[in-house]
Amino acid sequence: MRVVDVLGTSAYTLLQYGVSPDDDINTAIEKLNVKAPHIAEFLKRLVWSLQMS
Fold first, then answer.
1. What angle do CA 15, 29, 14 make, to 5 degrees?
2. Dist CA 36 CA 53 (whole Å)
3. What is the signed CA dihedral for 33, 47, 38, 11, rounded to 10 degrees?
C-alpha cells in the first residue's frame, strides 16, 4: 500500500519530510520516525484503523 493510497492528495504534504507519495507505508513510517515521529505515529494508527474496518 502506498502513501497516496491512504492519504490521497494530502500525501504530497509529506514531501517536505522526504516522503514520496509513491513510497510504501512502511518506508514512509521509517522516514517519518526520524524527522516527524508524531506524523509517523499518526500514519501507523491510520493504517491500522483502515485494516481493521
1. 15
2. 26
3. 80
Q: CB-based contacts of 32: which residues, under 8 Å, 6+ apart?
A: 14, 17, 19, 39, 40, 43
In the prediction, which pLDDT does 53 show? Answer: 80
pLDDT tens-digit profile, the chain (53 residues): 999 999 999 999 999 999 999 999 999 999 999 999 999 999 999 999 999 98
CA 2/CA 40 separation, integer angstroms: 14
The C-alpha cell that represents 43 in the structure block: 500514519
